[in-house]
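Q: Can I see a sequence and its folded structure?
A: Here is a first one.
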Amino acid sequence: MSREPIQISQEQIDRFQEDGFLVVENLIDADLVKRLGDRLDPLFHGNFETGIYPDEWHWRPGLSLPDVTREICNAWKSDLAIASVALSVEIGRLAATLAGWSGARIGQDSVWVKPPGAKEVSLHQDATYISYIEPTEMITCWIALDDTSADIGTIEYVPGSHKWGSVTELGEFHAPTSHYRSAMERAAAAVGVSNPQVVPIEISAGSCVIHHGKIWHGSGKNYRSDRVRRSLGVHTLSSEARFQPTGAGYIYGRYKRVGETTMDENFFPILWTRDGYRTAFLSDYCEDAIAASRTPSVVGALL
């Protein structure tokens, strides 16, 4: 059964623009949380339901260190449960509404697992990693698949840091050798911010936080010996986004047509537009699982 669309007020849009992130409680229900969570271990062990490999696969059993945060990118191509959320019309509509776009398409998803003792992920800006896209804008919906707290290495933000401008140089990401907040602190100092505030997001499983592509964010170490932190991030672009003529890199450059800048909807499908357009194959590819979830509530940034 379909549910009413999530309503976001102008006040909440203004808060998002000020802080750079917005919490949405109970985006998906407990049954869907469990369904997604149950798919993560098979994914990291190479069990791909569709037979298609994801675009990035960071951590493999027997090959990778046990104390690093695990990540798979574009699991929607490999697993239909992940796809049913990552390709949801609601995520596209929420992202476009907060960004002020006429529509939204998926850039990529990221499946995350931070096991007990897992190391940090450096604070970074998502926009740094999409310099090959025009416009260089991204909105991310980060969905918690476990109850989060600071001691398990939840996602954390520096409120207002999306106003500092963009960093173009790629730095350390997984399990950094320097302090995981170092790059952010250098960026803060460059704009005269001497004591940047870092806010850990503590939300229940099934809730999410939506963030701006230029906000500084990352996660600390999981200090718990008895708890894992799992999540699904959906990174969206404007429906009008295009490739830059050059520079797409060895992963996403494979999807750029020779001599063109169009982003092929087979690989970057459009989730929602104001005029009702949505990439045609999505309705046959997977269900839209969020349409069956209970009605969520939207709250402001956790400050």
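Q: Show me another, different protein.
A: A second, unrelated one:
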Amino acid sequence: MRFLFIWFLAIASVFAVQTKTIVDMTGRSVEIPLKVDKVVTAGGTPAVNAFLFALGCADTIQNGMNGYMSGKNWKFQAVFAPKIATQKVVSNGGPSWDVNTEALSTLPSDVVFVVNKISADNLAKKGFPTVALYWNSPESIKETMTLLGTIMGKEERAKEYNRYYDETLTQIATRVSHVKTKPKALYLRYTNLTLPMVSTATWVIEKAGGINVAKGVPDHARINMEQILVWNPDYLFVWNSDEIAALYQDPRFAQINAVKNKRVYAVPMGAHVWTHYTPEQPLALLWAAEIFYPERFKEYPIRKRIYDFYEHFYHYKLSEEEISQILHP
């Protein structure tokens, strides 16, 4: 009888779920399955999805996109992971990312991802294995990739991406670091005169060899026309092509250098907006650097870099039309 009992325990241990403990980006210790097959991106959905795409884990995502993100701006989410278009939505949009726990409980999940500690703690109390991601600096991109690589069993893939990230910054720096007269740029949401993601936009503009005239202003701050006239940027980056057309027709902007010289550009958008927290951020540096200094980057144009990036990390071969859609959202 004792032999049977020991045999039963041995068999049970074989079929028991093996786990490991990781520390998330807010310092929380979380026990998760050793092999993660199903995840829910309940917070920061498009950004977290973008990281999972880059790790080759698109098929693990069990939830869909919030309604306002299902339009043309985030169309490439469903290009890179078609099933996202029809899966259940479990949270509202940012910045709160409130989670519908009833909807969440109907989805299978080895790990639930959110983007703040409060949400993570609340969901953990309800029994969901929740990992919090936290983005507060450019280094957060590599830190996120490393953590997700550990969680998803894609450590080598994460290391490969981080090498690409560092090599891209080095390539750009060698071409722009000695520039003496740098262009002034501003990332502006024209429709409501707000400054989306000043923190990441500053990093992108500066690493690309420019000056962000709004450096130090809080993310998403609302500004007035008088301040824009004082800054008088040489380049304007806006949300989409519709904003470019409207801005050129707005007499208030007629004397801005960027408008007079036809240097207004929509920030590209693939899986996510390139200037936000996304593994596509190195592409934003290359894009901006080529705009500022086209002669220094003509041997490897941005369209070729875009194709190579998504083919290698996202396993998707973009058509010429799709590349244009990313560059001109």
